[in-house]
Structure formats: structure tokens, C-alpha cells
Amino acid sequence: MNLLSIGASYRTADVAVLERLVIPEPAVADLLQRLVAQPYVGEAVVVSTCNRVEVYAAVSGFHGGLGDICNVLAEHSGIPATELAGHLYVHYGEAAVRHSFRVSSGLDSMVVGEAQILGQLRDAYHAATEVDSAGRLLHELMQQTLRVGKRAHAETGIDKAGQSVVTAALDVAAEHLGGDLTGRSALIIGAGAMGSLSVATLTRSGVGPLRITNRSHERADRLAEAYGAVAIPFEQLDDVLREVDIVVCATASTQPVLTRERLERVGKDLIVLDLAVPRDVAPDAAGLPGLTVIDIDSLAGSRRTNPAAAETAAVEQIVVGEVENFLGWLRGAEIAPTVAALRTRAEDVVSAEMRKLISRRPEFTEEQRADVSRTLHRVVQQLLHSPTVRVRQLAAEPGGDQYAALLRELFDLDVPLATQADAVPEIGGKA
Fold it and tell me: Which CATH number belongs to the domain containing residue 33 in this structure?
């Protein structure tokens, strides 16, 4: 099996495409099951955030896996596969490992260094384990991806400024409000993970008073209590929109929460940070007098999302080393079925020779036969020990995949392809 990652992000698609691709949490399990039901897809993990949708998969062939995954995403989004292909990036083999590690480290995020991606990857991995769509290869990849991300954040200053999509959006909002947000009143619509991050970020930025609304008032009330904000019933949304300077939208609604009609009734200047995908602000509301909408598209083109090179150099070095470590694990794993086959061949030879000996020397007692058998097995195990340990070490080094093939050739070993595929995913470039 081979690693293949396919996705679309703020780099390759605008928010109109992303909101069609986004996978709501209740739909993740079904999509994972549809992916692993495809002929070329053996394992799958799906990551869906406000600015990226990605599939990490173990596939039995590049072109077949690519076609299977593209077809599932096209069916899910309603975007024809030929059109969707223009928005997708594809990473195969070693490149897929590198991409995964760069994502978890925050290097591929819209706001480089943001830490939220780690939680999103963890949730994606958990969802895959729940439906058993992650096998040995993706279990190892995701565990190492999370570890590398934690290491990057712990050992470097890439996230020292606490940057996130919310802080980037607030920077843009500050420009529209004279550069200072202190004392500006704000409303947060949504009490999920992004809503919670928004409340925390606005509080640290001096924005206030803060009000929070959510279709589930209980969740809004808990979040408001944690930050000293005020929870308001969702039914009072229209009234509160007329009273605040800034609105942060971060719901999981599949339909716009702020329709053109609702925003037309505000009757005052209003800045809306639409951090939801699908968008919470209706597209046809753009251009309303006094309304400023800051969404994923506008943030993607903002220089605030680009870090200084010095902030990422150390993380890039970590990623380079960790990719090689992972590839070493793969190369070392590839030799395992061959070593097992070699030991099985040795055991078969010992057993065959014992049967011949017993037929020639029927006078041997059971105890004598057992002694001879144990001695032969010990000799074989001692002869094989050092070579098999050494070949595992050599196989883990760059170019080590040749050792498995050499052993199979030298000893005429029959290693079933299915066994090799299960234990040893091949890693390489596009095919």
C-alpha cells in the first residue's frame, strides 16, 4: 500500500468551493466508509476545517486511488470531478508524509503557526478509529503527525504570538475601526470550538462588552459564564445586531445565518468576521451600505497570514528529520515479512531433516529425538540472529528497500504480495 493525500485548501480553492467540499461532523463517518469501500482505497482519514478539506489514504495504486477519492469527493460536494480536479493538490509517498508533518506543525496553515490544527487532526484521527478506517499505515502516520506537531510547537517559537484565524481577522477589523478595538462591543454567533476561540481572543484583545448567542442557549450560557460575557437568546439576534460594532460568525450551519434581509435591517455600520465554512453571511449581502465582511477569502490574501522566514526555519528542519525517520520506519517494516519468511524456510528445513533422520534411525527414543531437534533449532536460530538483526538495520537506511528484494532472491523466498502490502506500504514518487 502507498500513502496518498488529496485535498483543497485556501491555497487552491476559494470559499465558495470549500463550503461545498466541507464535511459536517455527522457526515464524516459515512464518508470514511464510502472511501474505504472503493477498490483502491484500503485506509482513510478525513480532515475538514474552515480552510481545508483533506483525505489521507493508503492506496494500492496511485491512479486508481486518486480516481476513487476524487469520485467520492465529487459526489459529496456536487462538483463534477473534472472541475474539482483543478482545485485539488495531490501528495504521494514521501511527499504525503512531508505534507502531513507540515500541516500538523502549522507550516501549511493560513495563519502559520496556529495551534488549532493539532486538535483538528486529533479529531480526524479519532473519527477514523471510531469507524475502523485507519489501518497500520495511517495509525502510524497520524500518531507521528501529532507527535511532530507537538514537538514543533514545543521546541520553536512558531506559535509564540498565539496567532490564529481569529487574530488575523481582528487585525483586518482593527484597520476599519481606526486601529484600536479596545472597548468595541462584539457579538459571537456560535459556541463551538471556533466560537470559544473567538471569545478568548476577543477578550485578550480588549474587545467588549461581549455577547454570545447560539441556537442551543445552554452552550452559549456556559461559554459566556467562562469569560464574563453575556449570553443572549438566539431569538434576539436581530436586536443585538443593531447594538454591536463587530460580529464574529462561527457556526456549523449549512445555511446562512446572516441573510441579506436580516443585515438590511441593521441600519448601521457593522463589521462581520465570517469564519464559518459554509459561510454564515449570505453571499448576496456583499455590498450592503455600511457592511464590511471579512471571510476566509479575504484572509487568504492578507499578508498577516504570512510569517517571517526566521519563525519557520527551525520547524522546517524538524520536519525534514522527522520525514526521514518515518521513511526509515517504513523501510525497516518492509523487511519484516521477508525475515519472517526466511525463518519459516529455516524451520521447514529443520523439520524436513528431522523427519529423514527419524526414518533412518528408528531406534532413537523420544527424548533423543527431542534433544536433536532442539539442537538443530538452536543452531539455526544462532546462525540467523546476527544477519537478520543487521539486515533490519540496513533496511531502515536510505536505499534499504533493496535488502528485502535481495534476501528473497538469494533464498528463493515466497513472500505473498498481500502480506507485504499489509505490513509494508511502498513509498515513492508519483506513478
Answer: 3.30.460.30
Whole-prediction pTM: 0.76
Same domain, 38 and 140: yes
- Please tell me which residue in 8, 44, 50, 103 is annotated as part of the active site: 50
The answer to whether 259 is annotated as binding is no
pLDDT tens digit string along 375-409? Answer: 988 898 888 888 887 877 777 676 666 777 787 78
Of 30-39, 156-165, 355-364, 402-411, the range with the lowest mean pLDDT is: 156-165
Residue 7 labelled as part of a binding site? no
Residue 274 in 3-state DSSP?
Answer: strand
Is 70 considered catalytic here?
no
The answer to whether residues 196 and 301 belong to one domain is yes
Residue 43 dihedral angles phi and psi, to the nearest 5°: -145, 155
For residue 303 the three cell numbers come to 499578508
Give me the domain span that covers residue 120.
Answer: 2-155
Q: What is the pLDDT of residues 283-298, one digit of tens each?
A: 999 889 999 999 988 8
DSSP per residue over 392-425, as a string?
A: HHHHTSTTTHHHHHHHHHHTT----HHHHHHH--
- Cα torsion 375, 380, 385, 387: sign: positive
**Secondary structure of 228-250 as H, E, C letters:** CCEECCHHHHHHHHCCCCEEEEC
Query: d(Cα 352, Cα 357) in Å, to the nearest integer?
Result: 9
* 287 φ/ψ sector (left φ>0, alpha ψ -120 to 50, else beta): left
Ligand-binding site membership of 116 (annotated):
yes
